[in-house]
Design brief:
5 strands, Rossmann fold, single chain, about 130 residues, globular, alpha/beta, five-stranded parallel beta sheet, about 20% strand, about 45% helix
């Protein structure tokens, strides 16, 4: 049961501090534990990757993009359900996200209920 509770961790990865803080507050209001990271590299260096049930990550960040992060996790055998958020939505990035197995693709700004629906979808895929 302890492992199941640990899998309720949602990792929020965005170089925009206000976006991280807002998403973290929303996720916590839903009863999940939320950990925020300013970059994909910071998340990859964290000890909690194996306990993460879902990622909410920005597409465009310095260093690894959200799609590159997803690809790296899949390649390492850890295909964490991923929600991609972006201020620069276009059909090319949407197609790349779909090909990478992204659960939801949300253009910024998005409504809380849109993110909540994506979280429910992502967490229902949890092992």
């Amino acid at each position: 049961m302890g492992q199941q509770l640990l899998k309720r961790i949602i990792a929020i990865i965005d170089d925009d501090e206000s976006m991280r803080d807002g998403a973290k507050a929303l996720v916590r209001s839903l009863g999940y534990d939320a950990h925020a990271f300013s970059s994909a590299e910071e998340f990859l260096a964290s000890p909690g990757i194996g306990n993460t049930g879902c990622l909410i990550t920005d597409l465009n960040m310095p260093g690894l993009s959200g799609i590159e992060l997803r690809r790296r996790l899949v390649a390492s055998g850890n295909p964490i359900p991923t929600i991609l958020i972006t201020a620069y939505a276009d059909e090319r990035s949407r197609a790349l996200a779909a090909k990478a197995g992204i659960i939801c693709y949300l253009p910024k700004p998005f409504r809380d209920d849109e993110l909540i629906e994506c979280l429910r979808k992502a967490m229902s895929q949890e092992d």
